[in-house]
Specification:
By secondary structure, the protein is an alpha/beta fold. It has helices at about 5-15, 20-30, 35-50, 65-70, 85-95, 135-145, 185-190, 205-225, 230-255, and strands spanning about 55-60, 75-80, 105, 120-125, 145-155, 195-205, 260-265. The protein is built from 9 helices and 7 strands, in the order αααβαβαββαβαβααβ. α4 links the parallel β1 and β2. About 40% of the residues are buried.
Length: about 270
């Protein structure tokens, strides 16, 4: 399944006005389990972060995490980077229209992008599974962080990430270059890149996997077959949405011995 065409279709719908884009962000925050996990960690980080913290949203996509961070503290400065110029232009336009002048967006290839000792936090959500030269990117993250700075990563695990459960299966998302990280492998790569301390835990345990199928996999499959499903989508979520909320809450509040996703933190 190619995810990018569906993302472009969603962008075309929700970019029509600022309030529609805000609605889109809120829907993503409610439906996407990874957003529940990431926002929880960002809130914890923000409690001890400098009032004038500088943040790199590395591979910002639609910009929903930049939007969340830009509203947390007025002194935060966010730079979002991506390789898709269309999304960069959309984000710059939207943030300018709503007066969020503490966030800006630019083109960058993470395998070569580094701004030494600039950022207090580097955020990387659903990015590393798309990049083959991952250690080089981790080295650039390390270089770009100030001493004591942290990188926060969300990525599929090798325990069924990308909806791959054995060696015979292909990734559900064709744009992925790896099906998922081993929990020890990614921490070793981060240490190889220079990080002094790492933490990692599983997300998308059994409740999260059920939520992902209901909230994302089945709708994406149907949208991939016909854009007419956009008409039925609100009715689909009217039925499934309450169950997804319960499952997301269970996943965020639980401790999982295994899961199809990872949340990884590392400190310079």
């Amino acid at each position: 399944m190619q995810y990018d065409p569906i993302k472009r279709s969603l962008g075309n719908v929700f970019n029509r006005s600022p309030w529609l884009r805000k609605l889109f962000y809120h829907l993503l925050d409610l439906l996407l389990l990874r957003s529940w996990h990431i926002r929880r960690h960002l809130r914890r980080w923000a409690k001890q972060a400098p009032e004038n913290a500088k943040i790199l949203d590395a591979g910002m996509g639609f910009g929903q995490y930049s939007y969340f961070l830009s509203g947390m503290k007025p002194g935060f400065t966010i730079k979002g980077v991506d390789v898709k110029q269309e999304q960069i232009d959309d984000c710059n336009n939207f943030f300018h229209r709503i007066g969020r002048n503490n966030a800006s967006f630019a083109f960058a290839d993470l395998t070569s992008f580094a701004e030494p000792a600039t950022y207090d936090l580097v955020l990387s959500v659903d990015v590393m599974e798309h990049i083959l030269e991952d250690v080089k990117v981790f080295q650039n993250f390390h270089s770009s962080l100030k001493p004591g700075g942290m990188v926060l990563i969300s990525t599929p695990s090798d325990q069924g990430g990308s909806d791959v459960h054995d060696h015979e299966e292909e990734s559900f998302i064709e744009e992925h270059v790896r099906d998922g990280y081993n929990i020890n492998e990614i921490q070793e790569k981060l240490k190889k890149a220079g990080f002094s301390r790492t933490e990692a835990h599983y997300q998308y345990g059994k409740p999260g996997q059920a939520s992902w199928r209901l909230s994302m996999k089945y709708p994406i499959l149907m949208l991939g077959k016909s854009k007419l499903f956009f008409i039925l989508l609100p009715f689909y979520y009217l039925v499934t949405f309450p169950f997804c909320l319960i499952l997301n809450r269970l996943d965020v509040n639980g401790k999982h011995k295994s899961g199809t996703g990872l949340v990884v933190k590392a400190w310079k």
